[in-house]
Amino acid sequence: MPTLSRRSVILAACSAVVAALLAVAALAPLPVVIAEPGLTADVLGSNAGTPVITVSGKPVRQTSGQLRMVTIQATGPSASVHFTDVAKAWFADDQAAMPREAVYPSGNTTEEIDKANQKEMTESQQDATSAALNHLHLSPSAVKVNLRLADVGGPSAGLLFSLGIIDKIAGNGRGGDLTGGRVIAGTGTIDADGKVGAVGGVPLKEQAARRDGATVFLVPRAECSDAKARLPKGLQLVPVETLDGTLDALDALAAGRKTPTC
Predict the structure, then answer these.
(1) What gap in Å lies between CA 58 and CA 150, rounded to an integer?
(2) What residues have CB less than 8 Å from 136, skipping those under 6 apart?
(3) Maximum distance among all alpha carbons in the chain?
(4) Is the pLDDT of residue 10 over 90?
(5) What is the pLDDT of residues 52-99, one digit of tens each?
(6) What pTM value is reported for the model?
(7) How many CA atoms lie within 13 A of 42 on its CB side?
(8) How far apart are CA 42 and CA 25, in angstroms?
C-alpha cells in the first residue's frame, strides 16, 4: 500500500476540518429573519370590519379608488434561521433574508416587540394626523381623526394615513379623488412636518401591492435603488420625499402629466 506524504496528510486533515466547520455553519442559527410579502389594507375603507379612518368635526367625502398600505411578514424573533434557509430565500422572488434588528429593532420577546411596534404605530398615526391637518390648515381641536388598523404595527403606514385623511376631507381640492380612481399603494414614514422617511422591505411590499391590484407604488426616494431591483410588471414607481410633493405627484398622475421617476 502506498504511503501518504506528509503534505497529503495535512491537506486531508485540513479538508476534514473545513468540512466540519461548513457543516456546523449550515446548522448554526443566524441573526436574520426570512421575510415575504404581507397583507395590504385600503386606508380609505375598512379593516376587520372597522373603518380605518374616522373623522369627526368635519364632513367627509365619498371616495373612489384605493390607497393601500403594505406590509411584510417575517419569521418570529425567536425562530431559528439557518444557512439553508438564507440560500433558499436568495433564489426566491418572494422571500428575502433580512437582519433581525431591521425587522425587530426593539425587545427580545414577542410581547416586548408587539408593545414596541404598537407604540411606533401610535406615534406614526399621531404624526400622520398632524401632517394632514397642517396641510389642510385645520385645527386638531376642531377636527378629530381616529385611525384604526388591526394587527399592524410600526411606522411605515404614516404616509398612506396622511393621504387617506386628506382624501376623506378634501380630496384633490377640486372635487376629485387623490387616487383618480386607481388602486395606489405605498410605504413611508411621515413626521408632523410632512417629511417622508425610508422604511425597508420595499421589494416585498411591491409584490404585495401588485398582488392586491395596485398599479402605482409610492416609495421614499431614498429607497429608489431597492424599489427598482425587483419591480413587478405593471407597477409604476413614484418616488416621494414630502407630503406636498406626493400630492403634486398624484395630481399629475390623475391629469396624465409626467410624474417623478426613480
Answers:
(1) 25
(2) 166, 169, 170
(3) 96
(4) no
(5) 999 999 999 999 999 999 999 887 777 788 888 788 887 788 888 878
(6) 0.83
(7) 19
(8) 43
- CA 119/CA 97 separation, integer angstroms: 25
- Min mean pLDDT across 11-25, 91-105, 201-215 is at 11-25
Can you read off the three cell numbers belonging to residue 89?
Answer: 430565500
Sign of CA dihedral 235, 93, 152, 135: negative
Contact 46, 52 (CB under 8 A): yes
Phi/psi of residue 37, nearest 5 degrees = -55, 140
CA–CA distance from 179 to each of 12, 164, 251 (Å)? 66, 10, 9
| pLDDT at residue 108 tops 80 | no
Distance CA 153, CA 89 (A): 24
Contact between 144 and 55 (Cβ < 8 Å):
yes
Q: In the 8-state DSSP scheme, what is residue 223?
A: G
- The grid coordinates of residue 156 equal 411605515
Residue 131 vs residues 11, 39, 136: alpha-carbon distances, Å: 66, 25, 9
Per-residue confidence (pLDDT) for residue 176, from 0 to 100: 93
Residue 39 has pLDDT above 90, yes or no: yes
Residue whose C-alpha cell reads 399592524 in the numeric block = 152
Phi, psi of 192 (to 5 degrees): -65, -20
H or E element, residue 184: strand 183-186
Can you list the domains of the chain with their CATH numbers? 36-74+108-255 (3.30.230.10)
Size (the chain), residues: 262
